[in-house]
Amino acid sequence: xxxxxxxxxxxxxxxxxxxxxxxxxxxxxxxxxxxxxxxxxxxxxxxxxxxxxxxxxxxxxxxxxxxxxxxxxxxxxxxxxxxxxxxxxxxxxxxxxxxxxxxxxxxxxxxxxxxxxxxxxxxxxxxxxxxxxxxxxxxxxxxxxxxxxxxxxxxxxxxxxxxxxxxxxxxxxxxxxxxxxxxxxxxxxxxxxxxxxxxxxxxxxxxxxxxxxxxxxxxxxxxxxxxxxxxxxxxxxxxxxxxxxxxxxxxxxxxxxxxxxxxxxxxxxxxxxxxxxxxxxxxxxxxxxxxxxxxxxxxxxxxxxxxxxxxxxxxxxxxxxxxxxxxxxxxxxxxxxxxxxxxxxxxxxxxxxxxxxx
Length: 358
Fold this sequence. Notes:
Blueprint: H1 3-12, H2 18-28, H3 32-54, H4 59-69, H5 78-102, H6 131-137, H7 144-147, H8 154-166, H9 186-192, E1 213-222, E2 235-242, E3 247-262, E4 268-284, E5 294-304, E6 308-321, E7 324-337, E8 340-355
Antiparallel strand pairs: 1-2, 1-8, 2-3, 3-4, 4-5, 5-6, 6-7, 7-8
């Protein structure tokens, strides 16, 4: 093999230096035979790449690599793979309907809309009475001298009336509107606010205390193209601590499928089902209702055996009872493995149960 032929193969392999590339290009511009050899080598390399991509690794090599990475390759039809999703959804829906029938949910809204009171100016005349009118309205202060008919001058009587009138505080009315949310339950409104001139206990929390711990179980159905594992292998279990009505923090155990390019003698795309442990945060807005559900956003960050995992879920909580909710939404997660990022997008169906643990 001469030097120019060696330069051709070095260039195709990406190992030629800039000086060698310049030498090869100069020779190609001068020799037609060298150009023919270059095109033959290029076609040969493309044919080898195509054959390498088509060839599959031996079965024993695949099984060994999959077993080492914990990869499960489904070999069932699409209908049989969708059966667990349908059965799980039907079971959760049946449980929710049964609980709703056994424990009917009472709405927190008041029976009638509370209309704001009219301004005090339209009901009470706030004109300040004159000094003689206020003096006449006062009960007369009589001393012992009045019983003996002690003589008094008109000037002394006028000064006494003026002093008594000045002791009266002027009639004032201070309006301080208290904004009350329309979605706030009436029972909680009376317990935590000041209604009219009655001063009730100013509570920092609602009168009926909710369970501080919440268990959340969610099953997912993959929306991406390709094979998807059973619903029993695509779920998440979270234990949340409720700080208030909006914020929750907990630990999540997640199991989800990811499409990875595993380095083998012949690189192939495969679906790996991995487990991960993450820290999850959930934000809900109980005062906002969309189609009867409470919106929520739940991000999480954790680790798996192959690398870090980040996920986010969003959807609606549909309350069945006070401590039991049915969740519907979308779930997306990403796995960073080696130099690639594998992602998954799923439809989420879950349940939330309050745990009365103090």
